User: What shape does this take?
Amino acid sequence: MSEYLLEVKNLTRIFTSKRKKTVALKDVSLAMERDNPKTLAVVGESGSGKSTLANHILGFLKPTSGQVLFEGKDINRQNRQQHKQYRQKVQAIFQNPFDTFNPFYKVDHVFHMLVSHFHVAPSRKKALPLIEQALEMVRLNPGDVLGKYSHQLSGGQQQRIMIARCLLLKPKLLIADEPVSMIDASLRVTVLDVMEKIKTQNRISQLYITHDLSTALQISDDIIVMYKGHIVEKGPAIEVIQSPAHPYTQLLIQCIPLPSPEERWESPIDIQDTRRIESEEACCFCDRCPKAADICFRRQPGYTQVSDEHSVACYLYGDKTE
Ligand SMILES: Nc1ncnc2c1ncn2[C@@H]1O[C@H](COP(=O)(O)OP(=O)(O)O)[C@@H](O)[C@H]1O
Ligand SMILES: [Mg+2]
Assistant: This one.
């Protein structure tokens, strides 16, 4: 069996409409090990392709080209049975937990639907101790949340219920797309702590998608930095933050608003290079890059290793000849 839990290989996704063509993902490749649960953060500004990547890994969208492999198998070539197993092994939580709750049902409903769909337990009665155990794992007191309606709970409690719901299925991978960005700052820490804990205790690998580099550093082992659908840099979280190689990552780090974690980290860069982008193949960052050379306007750089596990797509580190 494959040594990788998840492999994304040269994933490209182009959205086309009558008026425009958007390259949402371009040649994106990443891998997560199978027997060594880690948190991989995918960071980038809004519009960089993070959710499109998540939606391809979840099988909600089909690639224009490239592949998503789970345990060595292409997820777009699964039969029904394999697909159902995949949907159990890979779970997701999203930005707004409130969307998942039906306001007319008690929160218990989200558990019961899952229990019957995936046959987690033969009856509601037998499912109850499992639900209670999952709630305790996410540091919720079952008595405080079961029997309540979603509007009676905080965003942090709701998101932890969504994590507890995932735990019932004993997944191998959790995809968390901006899981704390709509949650009050004071409640974020508990959700992130819970994510950290289930990685270690429940051995669940995680893809943590965020626009917030500081929480990425807090809970992730590795970081991928995306810009306009391209991975521009990847490596161990500490290394990427302490020695960012790509000019884009460097600018992002300068822009982390230190004193107030409340502030949003979006479009911090206002440089606009007046040199004409000569080719569709130009580096994705050339028109905003303070260090751009002529070649950057002609051709996208390949990846260069800056250390064993740290690589960057930038001519500053690689071959400058054409
Ligand atoms: N269904 C879609 N149809 C057309 N364009 C889309 C669609 N989904 C995303 N896009 C475009 O793809 C790019 C990446 O979007 P997205 O993956 O949502 O970014 P992020 O999650 O990083 O904010 C954006 O330019 C967005 O407008
Ligand atoms: Mg998104």
